[in-house]
Amino acid sequence: MPQVESIEAAALALREGCASFGVPGAQLGLMRGEERVVVCVGDAVDPTTPFRAGSIAKAVAAALVLDAAARGDLDLDAPAREQGGGDGWPETPRTLMAHRSGRPNVLPADDESLTAFTDRVAAMPLVHPPGRFSYSNAVWSVIDRVLEHSAGSGFEQLAVQRVFEPLGMTGRFEAPADGAPGHAVSAPGEAPRPVSFAAGPAASAAGSRWWATADDLLRFARSQLDGGPAAAEQRRRHADVPGRGFADGWALGWALWDRGPYQAFGWSGYTSGHLAFLRIFPEQDAALALLTNCAGPLLGGAGGSAVFDHVAPACWPLLGVRAPVFPSGGPGRPVAALAGAYGPVTVGAMGDDTLSVHAPAMGIGEPVAHTRRHDDTFETRTTRLGGMSLAFDDDLLYFGPFALPRAG
């Protein structure tokens, strides 16, 4: 692993990206073998400054479940309702963590208890029949209940005792006084504005409360590379991602990328003001972590996602990682057959391989053109850095990892 003075290309890309895409502060961490290095941007940011790590916490929760299963405390393949998950949850912990339950993607109210929230979600209709992939934050609250019942403690306490402290991580769940303050931008070129974010502990296993540093994420990545059968099982593919848009597969708390020479697992964390990224490369025994304190628009062009897309290619040579070969495929269905309403998103036909996306409730106030990348997967016509792909699979629209059923 190169020393700090030899990663100037990555540090320069980080500074350029933050300046170009409206991000006030960031940490970039690189690991190869046992060596780790962290570089920072921002007046009040140093390697010890915590940022919200968001949904990367799902991988910590999955690691705790696999550890509890190895201890004999719970059964990955027994119904959650038989292991403290609540009467309305017949799915197994494995099915829930693999996002194959069909459960809706919802979050609890700030003051809603874990039990009240999971009971409320249990009564909601499914987005689709079980067995297909669709991302749900809600199912991780059931995982928290199963851990509490089977292992004797809930997610937060177990994370500290069994992950953070043994690995020397500084992660915490209460908002720290020295944490990087959150920001948001709504459009490219806009100045970042301060935003606050508060979420109750009922969503903690989904990632609502975890603050971490880039070095924390790299330490966790190291444990995953060294973790033996349990870690290997955690990153085994459990579901295919329709359209291969945001990733190629899903494991247990991890997304998977299988793109020619680019083989990786990891995930991202979004918490209304922060964006975090972790990518782990088993073949290179390497990892990349990026923490930013600015969320941008869903279709890209600003914020932490754009910074990640700008910085990551500059880091690959330092880690021995080769550039990905992006998926390809056939012509797909006619655009007119895909047009319609999917939840808050309205899709219109614009041409043979172009459609429009309009979703005011999601911050897409004017229709945005998307062109076909392959099959039924589309991306913005301007190919903005940090944007979400769209993929159609039967009657579902996948906006990134989130499945939206077609109306009517």
CATH fold-level name of the largest domain = Beta-lactamase
Largest sheet: 8 strands, antiparallel
The dominant shape is globular
- Topology, number of strands: 20
* CATH first level of the largest domain: Alpha Beta
Q: Classify the helix fraction into a percent range.
A: 25-40%
As residue ranges, the low-confidence spans are 1-5
Per DSSP, the total helix count is 10
Tell me the name of the CATH homologous superfamily of the largest domain: DD-peptidase/beta-lactamase superfamily
Order of strands, main sheet, comes to 2-1-12-11-10-9-8-7
Order of helices and strands: HEEEHHHHHEEEHHEEEEEEHHEEEEEEEE
Which secondary-structure class do the elements indicate? alpha+beta
Mean pLDDT: 95
CATH architecture of the largest domain: 3-Layer(aba) Sandwich
Give the CA-CA distance, first to last residue. Answer: 55 Å
Provide an overview of this structure.
The chain has 408 residues and is α+β, with helices and mostly antiparallel strands. It has two domains: 327 residues, DD-peptidase/beta-lactamase superfamily (Beta-lactamase); 71 residues. It is built from ten helices and 20 strands. The strands form four sheets. An eight-stranded antiparallel β-sheet has the order 2-1-12-11-10-9-8-7, with helices on both faces. The chain has an eight-stranded antiparallel β-sheet with strand order 13-14-15-16-17-18-19-20. Strands 3-6 form a two-stranded antiparallel ribbon. Strand 4 and strand 5 form a beta hairpin. The termini are far apart.
